[in-house]
Amino acid sequence: MKKIMNTGLLALAFLVISACTSTPVDKGTDSAVPSGKGIVNINNQELQVLMDKNVTLVDIRRPEEWSLGVIPGSKKVTFFMKDGSINPELIPQLKRVAPTDKPVALICRTGNRTQVGSLMIKTQLGYPTVYNVEKGITHWYSEGRAIAKR
Description:
Layout: H1 2-20, E1 26-27, E2 39-42, H2 44-52, E3 56-59, H3 63-66, E4 75-76, H4 90-97, E5 104-107, H5 112-125, E6 130-133, H6 136-142
Parallel strand pairs: 1-2, 2-6, 3-4, 3-5, 5-6
Helix pairs in contact: 1-5
């Protein structure tokens, strides 16, 4: 069963990657309100507003990337392994930290993996709203925002 689910997620990831180049994602506003598709690109200021409202932030990078630092309060769940495959424990780990009936925000290094991950969890797991932090944690660092060492 696990193998079938992982194969299905992998197939979806390939479809999502190709769709990301042609499928528009909602652009956030100062209030970060989605316009209907349920996936919203946001900037760091919008992320801070969401975090202040207790929206779960999930850092989808790999453990070796977390050692550089994470945003305080973020949850760490690797989405994609170093070889590009989907983390076989992704679904149970994600559901433990981010209930599927609530909005969730995703961050990675530069925003590329979260584009794919956002569409993946929106379509496969049914999150009502998924916020994609556009420029990732590298931009968070560059703005001098708070970082916690792992």
